[in-house]
Structures are given as structure tokens and as C-alpha cells.
Write a structure and sequence with these properties.
alpha/beta; single chain
Length: 440
């Protein structure tokens, strides 16, 4: 019987409830089969959480080893901290796990079997499904997408039922990258290529997989190993785009230098669209990512982004406010509860958008003389443009707060001009920076 020694590494920051749910799943894992016996040790890397994570885990889960970093190192620094702590110990495989996933009881067995029987594979990932939509696949690994200078996910957003016959025939799929949401790696791979780059978060696992491929290891995903992960649609915040673009540039500079310049060209239509629709503050996040790459900034960004972010209390200070809130914004439970309480206290009045075309056109015409809405709060990603002409003030909900949007024609034209200006500066600086790498 084969015996496998595995260390699970979970990185967390103020996600105690999620970590406890994951630990419950790990306690239910099938670790013993006819031909395989797995010994699993669990390490939780705590990035200086303030929600009592370390104390609770040490009291309630004595079998779990808590590694305290002392500060928020992000996913990159947290995984590197954990990998450095265990790679000198007697483990065959190291299992990287996001703190907000749920794990099928056979998830680890299938990953171990892949590495046990395929010595040329250095890293193997799981089939990741959406926690909020379990019938949909989030990804089963991914590939470098050279046309977009980005990544494409394998089976991304595919219904599980539609691809089950295909997946049943595949013991593993060869891919370019696997997400560190659930990723099993041989200890000797870590000893050979090292730990994550200091990206803080996002694309650290991409660069790591590409580095392993460069060292002649194969990267695979096993569709029989199933985990459920919170959908990016619900987790996404605009500031994440800063880390995406900055770290993607570092990744391409190292592994695909011809894609760095292409990336800014690919982004230009999106940036112009954001500028023309009152969301230039989003462009500033993207631009800051490129500028910080050019400056060599890594790790966590400590400087604020160049726009003002307000809390709900700061924007809802007017008495008898006529307010419109987009439905997708109200899905944020804290915001919805606050608005319901203000409405119950008769401090605000919620304005509902008319549904019929005729009544909407009449309201729109009336808004030329007197706007019926004092303030509209819309989602930054997909704002309700129908209400914007009706409101005196428009705020974009950006996940952690609100920022004022300016939809005046002069402001939109200025945003488009600034977008072109910053694009030109970034392009020429990237071209100069990347010239030595393109000559190799």
C-alpha cells in the first residue's frame, strides 16, 4: 500500500467562519483507499487576523497548526510563509487551499493519485465549481490566452451536466496553470523552483505554475477532485484590477514578454468605455497598476488610490432624501439593512424606476426640468444607466464604499482625453522598459 504524507496550507485573514467550515470538510475527507493511505497535517497561516482566528483555532482545533505571520502578507506572502515552514519537513505533497472553499470528501485522494501515478506532473489542481451556483463550473485549470494577453479558464462557466460525459473519460487534463484555491504540489517542485513571487494577491499562482513548466514539470487538473469556491462575480472589487494588471505585467515580463505591450492595447477599448460612461475612477485603478509596475512596486499597495471613497453614513446625511438604489447593490446585506432602517425611520424615501416605456419617457422628459431623484447609488461594474439622467448625484458602489461619479458631458470628454493621455504615457514607458526583454 502506498503511503502519502500531505501538508495542507490554508491562508486566511479575518475569515474565521469560512476557515471553520473548511476544517469541517477536511475532517470528512476520505484518506484511506484500497491501495492508498494518506496522512494529512493541516497548517493555517494567519495573516494577523483581528477576528480571533488564532485563539479560536488553537482552542477548538488543537490538531491544526497555526502559523502566525504578524501582518497581512496577502495570499502570496501567506502561501510562501507556509511553504517555507513545511518544505523542510517530511512531506511528499503540499496542498494549497483558499480559506473560502468547500471540499468534496474525495478531493484530496484524486489529487494524490494523479501525482503518485504520473511522475512527470509536478502540480495538479481540482475542478472548481461555484459555491453560489453548484451546477456551474468555475474552472478546471486554465491556459495562457495570447490574443487577449491574459488567461482563459478551462470549462469556465460551463454547466456541470453538459460536460460530465467528457470529464468522466479524463483522469487528468494538461493545462498551463491551476488556481491555488485547491492545488497539490510535490515537495521537490517547491525545493526546485522556490515559493511565490511577492505579488500580495492574484497571478502569484499563475506565475508559479509557469515557472514549474519552465523547469520541465507538467501542470494538470483532475476533474474528479471537486471543490466549491465563491464566484468571482460576488467577490470582485475594482481595486483588485490594480493587482491584476500590475502582477500580470510582472508575470508576462518573466515568461511572455511580448504580451506586456499587447495587454495595454487590449485594455484600451474597455478603458475608453469606462471613461465615456462616468467611471473614470476605475481607469485610475488600472493605470496605477501599470505605473507601479514601471516603478517596480511589489507586494501590498499602501498608498490610497487617486479617488475619494465615502462610507454610507457620509453620503446619506441629507434629511428627506429621495434615493434610488440599484438591486444588485442591495444584495450587499449590510447596505440593504441600513437602507431598510433609514426608510423605516422615514429619513429617506426610496424612488422606484418606472417600468413601462411610456412612463419612463415621460419621467425622462420631466427630468430635463426637475430631477426626481436626489441621489442614485449604482453598481460600478454594471450600473443602471436608465436612472442616471434622473438623479442629481450619482455614487458608484465599489464594494467597500462609494465614490462620486460625474456624468456631465464636459467631465466625460475630459475623462476620455485623460484616458488617451495616460495610455500614451504608459505605452511608451512600457515599450522602453520591455525592449531588453524582447531582445532575448
Amino acid at each position: 500500500m502506498a503511503i502519502a504524507q500531505v501538508a495542507a496550507i490554508i491562508v486566511t485573514w479575518n475569515k474565521l467562519q469560512d476557515v471553520c467550515l473548511l476544517l469541517q470538510d477536511l475532517a470528512q475527507l476520505d484518506l484511506h483507499t484500497i491501495h492508498l493511505d494518506i496522512h494529512l497535517d493541516i497548517y493555517v497561516v494567519d495573516n494577523a487576523s483581528t477576528d480571533g482566528t488564532q485563539v479560536h483555532l488553537e482552542e477548538s482545533y488543537p490538531h491544526v497548526k497555526v502559523l502566525q505571520t504578524g501582518k497581512n502578507l496577502g495570499g502570496s506572502g501567506g502561501f510562501s510563509y507556509g511553504l517555507n515552514a513545511v518544505r523542510g519537513l517530511d512531506y511528499d505533497y503540499l496542498w494549497l487551499l483558499d480559506n473560502d472553499i468547500r471540499v468534496d470528501s474525495e478531493a484530496l485522494v484524486f489529487l494524490v493519485k494523479t501525482l503518485l501515478h504520473q511522475p512527470e506532473i509536478g502540480i495538479v489542481g481540482s475542478q472548481i465549481r461555484k459555491r453560489d451556483d453548484p451546477g456551474t463550473i468555475q474552472e478546471i485549470g486554465g491556459f495562457v490566452h495570447k490574443q487577449k494577453a491574459h488567461l482563459t479558464t478551462h470549462f469556465g462557466n460551463a454547466p456541470v451536466a453538459s460536460v460530465e460525459p467528457i470529464l468522466r473519460e479524463q483522469q487528468h487534463l494538461l493545462v498551463d496553470i491551476c488556481a491555488a484555491a485547491s492545488l497539490l504540489v510535490r515537495r521537490q517542485v517547491v525545493e526546485q523552483i522556490g515559493v511565490f513571487e511577492d505579488y500580495f494577491l492574484h497571478f502569484d499562482d499563475v506565475e508559479w505554475c509557469l515557472r514549474a513548466k519552465q523547469a520541465s514539470w507538467l501542470i494538470a487538473a483532475n476533474p474528479a477532485s471537486i471543490v466549491w469556491h465563491a464566484s468571482p462575480d460576488f467577490k470582485y472589487r475594482p481595486w483588485i484590477s490594480y493587482y491584476d494588471e500590475r502582477n500580470l505585467c510582472y508575470c508576462w515580463q518573466k515568461h511572455q514578454p511580448q504580451l506586456v505591450l499587447k495587454r495595454i492595447w487590449v485594455l484600451l477599448p474597455k478603458l475608453l468605455y469606462y471613461a465615456a460612461t462616468g467611471r473614470y475612477c476605475i481607469n485610475q485603478i488600472y493605470f496605477q497598476g501599470f505605473f507601479d509596475f514601471l516603478k517596480g512596486v511589489r507586494g501590498q499597495r499602501t498608498q490610497p488610490f487617486p479617488y475619494t471613497e465615502y462610507s454610507l453614513d457620509q453620503i446619506l446625511y441629507q434629511p428627506d432624501l429621495v434615493l434610488f438604489v440599484q438591486d444588485t447593490v442591495c444584495q450587499n446585506s449590510e447596505l440593504g439593512q441600513q437602507i431598510q432602517q433609514l426608510q423605516a425611520d422615514e429619513k429617506i424615501r426610496i424612488w422606484n424606476l418606472t417600468q413601462t416605456i411610456g412612463s419612463y419617457l415621460w419621467t425622462l422628459l420631466s427630468a430635463l426640468f426637475r430631477k426626481p431623484v436626489d441621489m442614485a447609488v449604482v453598481a460600478w461594474h454594471k450600473p443602471n444607466f436608465r436612472v442616471i439622467p434622473m438623479a442629481k448625484q450619482i455614487y458608484l458602489f465599489i464594494g467597500s464604499g462609494y465614490t462620486l461619479a460625474d456624468f456631465r458631458i464636459s467631465a466625460l470628454l475630459g475623462a476620455i482625453a485623460n484616458t488617451f493621455y495616460n495610455f500614451c504615457i504608459i505605452y511608451w514607458q512600457l515599450r522602453r522598459t520591455m525592449k531588453p526583454y524582447l531582445r532575448r
